[in-house]
Amino acid sequence: MIPDLQRPTSRTYRPAREVVVLGSTGSIGTQTLEVAALFPERLRIRALSAGRNWELLAEQARSVRPERVAIVDEAAAGPLRAALADTGIEVVVGAEALVTLAADPEADVVVGAVVGAAGLRPTLAALEAGTDVALATKEALVIAGALVTEVSARTGARVLPIDSEHSALFQCLVGEPAASIERVILTASGGPFRDRDPRTFGSVTAAEALAHPNWDMGARISVDSATMMNKGLEVIEARWLYDLAPDQIGVVVHPQSIVHSVVEFVDGSAKAQVGVPDMRVPIQYALTFPDRWPAPHPRLDWGTLGTLDFRAPDLDAFPALALAFRAMEEGGAAPAVLNAADEVAVAAFLDGQIGFTDIARLVEEAMDAHGGAPSNTLDDLLAADSAARQHVRQSLTVSADAG
Ligand code: MG
User: How close is the Cα of 218 to the center of ligand 1, in Å?
Assistant: First the structure.
């Protein structure tokens, strides 16, 4: 997708950009609405969606007055309709409603912040409709990177990354031809256990894993950050976003999360994008690209910043990161299996069914069993996703019976 950065935008934006926010009640969704509130004349919220949190969705809708809201959970539809009865806001229901919102021909940009594989079809629907997607949903590129890239290239709709690392790479790459990239380096905070003795990882609790030092995030991504699976998924996303070979992507642990990522160029020069860790900055850039709009987000205080540290990741202590590199190299269905197995394993960990180190073990077993599944179509990939989930659930049942 790199050469497209040079291309003038395929759309003429209206004075106010019409924004659809899928997943508006999550961490990225709520911060997207905070950004939009800074620019009421320039960003108009056209539609919102939530999985099941109808209370917050109704509150958001009353505040930003979209034309439509979608709720996936059918049981939440009644209360949501009642809460918005006097507003004239249309309520649509079910997983297919996300696709309807995403494919809205009047949208200028769709923010894809739905958690999980549920974000995949809406992402493809927006791109098929020729609408740029400001993408936070990792699964879209991890599960179906080849498909997403193909649709984007065919329709000219762009994937604008929201994730801080990919936004950093994106910002470093503006104005640079693809042939000048040598490699990229994603920075990783290292998560809450970067300085913990790996021999004690077996006794890690869910509460410890959820306490991320630098970023305020959802539950799965916090645990994925603790195992470094999150960085692994980001490596796979970067491969697709910037058309890179596996050996062109590196990871470095950088505890302060000030340097958001680095691009190294063929002439030996490197660019890094830096800033206070605050997701509103990359969210805003995805909504305003190719422009930058003045905003009061926190600035770095260079005089007190002090020392920035960097070190190589420990792949023995954090095997999930090594598994993600393996999945990227294997390609096909392997990344989909990696992601699905991890999602189920993380849920089991949060539920107290398994230990912290069991997460990577279960993911590896699922990859061994299903990583080579067919991957030609979206249905193939979703079947591999299901098989991986089933595989992990089966292992959980077996170990529960044995225990
Ligand atoms: Mg990130």
Answer: 12
pLDDT tens per residue across span 234-244: 999 999 999 99
pTM, entire model: 0.93
CB atoms within 10 A of CB 403: 6
CA of 276 to the centre of ligand 1 (A): 14
What is the Å distance from ligand 1's center to 125 Cα? 24
| DSSP secondary structure string for all residues of 241-306 | HTT--GGGEEEEE-TT--EEEEEEETTS-EEEEE--S-THHHHHHHHHTT------PPPP-HHHH-
In tens, the pLDDT along 235-291 reads 999 999 999 999 999 999 999 999 999 999 999 999 999 999 999 999 999 999 999
Measuring CA to CA, which residue among 170, 171, 123, 175 is closest to residue 150? 123
How many angstroms does the Cα of residue 165 sit away from the middle of ligand 1? Answer: 5
Distance 244 CA to ligand 1 centre (A): 18
289 Cα to the center of ligand 1, angstroms: 19
Q: At the top level of CATH, which class does the domain 17-162 belong to?
A: alpha beta
Contact in structure between 369 and 362 (CB atoms under 8 Å):
no
Alpha carbon dihedral 141, 45, 54, 73, in 10-degree steps, equals -40
CA of 186 to the centre of ligand 1 (A): 9
Looking at 1.10.1740.10, 3.30.870.10, 2.60.40.1510, 3.20.20.140, the CATH number of the domain 331-403 comes to 1.10.1740.10
* 1 CA to centre of ligand 1 in angstroms: 19
Q: Which DSSP symbol is given to 180?
A: G
Domain assignments of the chain as residue spans, ordered by start: 17-162, 176-276+301-319, 331-403
Distance CA 386, CA 71 (A): 23
Q: Report the C-alpha gap between 143 and 339 in whole angstroms.
A: 7
In angstroms, what is the span from residue 275 Cα to ligand 1's centroid?
14
**For residue 164, how far is its CA from the centre of ligand 1 (angstroms)?**
5
Cis bond before residue 296 (omega within 30° of 0): no
Distance 163 CA to ligand 1 centre (A): 5
